[in-house]
Amino acid sequence: MNWMAWTLPTALFFCAIGLLLFTMTLIELKRPTTMARGWLPMATTRGDRIFISLLAAAGLHVAWLALFTSPPYVASVAAVITAIIVLRWG
Amino acid sequence: MNSLSKPSAVARLTLWAYCLYLILPLYWLLTMALRSNQDILGSFTWWPTSFTLVNFAEVFTNPVWRDGLINSLTYVVLNTGISILVAVPAAYVFSRFRFLGDKQLFFWLLTNRMAPPAVFLLPFFQLYSAVGLFDTPLAVALAHCLFTVPLAVWILEGFMASVPKEIDEMAALDGHSFGVFFFRIFLPLNRAAIGVTLFFCFMFSWVELLLARTLTASAAKPIAVVMTRTISASGVDWGLLAAAGVVTLIPGIVVVWFVRKHLVRGFAMGRV
Amino acid sequence: MQANQNRAWLGVLPVVLIVAFSGVIPLMTVVNFSVQDVLDVNTRFFVGFDWYREILRDQRLLDALGRQLLFSATVLAIEIPLGIAVARAMPREPKGRGWGAAALLVLLALPLLVPWNVVGTIWQVYARPDIGLLGHGINALGIHYNFSQVSSHAWITLILMDVWHWPSLIALLAFSGLTSIPNQHYQAAELDGASRWQVFRFVEMPRLRSVLIIGVLLRLMDSLMIYTEPFVLTGGGPGTSTTLLSQYLATMAVGQFDVGPAAAFSVLYFLLILLLCWLFYTAVVKRDLEQDFARQGERAAHE
Question: Which CATH class is domain B61-268?
Answer without folding.
Answer: mainly alpha
